[in-house]
């Protein structure tokens, strides 16, 4: 790992979210609460859907996968962030940094793909209801969900493998509270041309292509909703569709901002806030927007609580 007589870096120093001692206690409590809410909300969703046969449909199957992704994402980032806020001068080993990078990149890519699959599922349900049971058969749903996890795992394996080939010989101060591809590339003392090429390819596929496919699905959904004659039906459909679109737009904009604009001045200044949106805020809001507002899920949750008590 060493190069040109430089000493190889064996650990990195994470800057943390805030260096202001007066704000660290507030931020620790804030992120701890977010972490608990994200874990509780997503675990409840997985439990309710798993224990209720009436929810074993394609839509809830994909929601279960989304909840699992959110659990992994928050658990990859927030515990280390909380440690950094509690302990001054938080460090992370080289191996720990690569591990965090792998799982974070895996979750981000998989969630982008899964949002596309979920948008397609809603498109078939709303625009092609007579073909829904045929087009969204159980084997196809399993194939789509499996492809989401596998394709993203292959992509993150390539990025992590290329990152592991780079030399880090100082400085070892990461200007972030997590290990992420753009910030680590800035610390490398090896050529990063191949890494940057792979990032562009991943950006085009995960960011641009999937975003266009997702927007195409929602475009067809909105067109179909406009044909609904009932004003109440339109209102309810738009309410659900708009909340889903809000999640999609927020998630895509933050991820694209981080990975398509790495190294820019504005990206470095605002990167921490943007990262919080897709590693903490989004996993916390997803259960509320996608599931807990749903009447069927509420009924399933009541059954779970009755069984527990």
Provide the descriptors you would attach to this structure in a database record:
mainly alpha; Rhopdopsin 7-helix transmembrane proteins; 3 strands; 76% helix; 3% strand
Description:
This is Olfactory receptor. It holds the Pfam family 7tm_4. It is found in: Cell membrane. Its main location: membrane. Keywords: Cell membrane, G-protein coupled receptor, Membrane, Olfaction, Receptor, Sensory transduction, Transducer, Transmembrane, Transmembrane helix. The radius of gyration is 21 Å and the shape is globular. A 3-stranded mixed sheet has the order 2-1-3. It has helices spanning 21-51, 58-86, 94-127, 132-135, 138-164, 181-185, 193-226, 231-260, 265-292, 295-308; strands at residues 11-14, 91-93, 173-174. The N and C termini lie far apart (55 Å). It has one domain (11-308): Rhopdopsin 7-helix transmembrane proteins, CATH 1.20.1070.10. Residues 1-6 and 263-267 have low confidence and may be disordered. It is built from 10 helices and 3 strands. It has 309 residues and is an all-alpha fold.
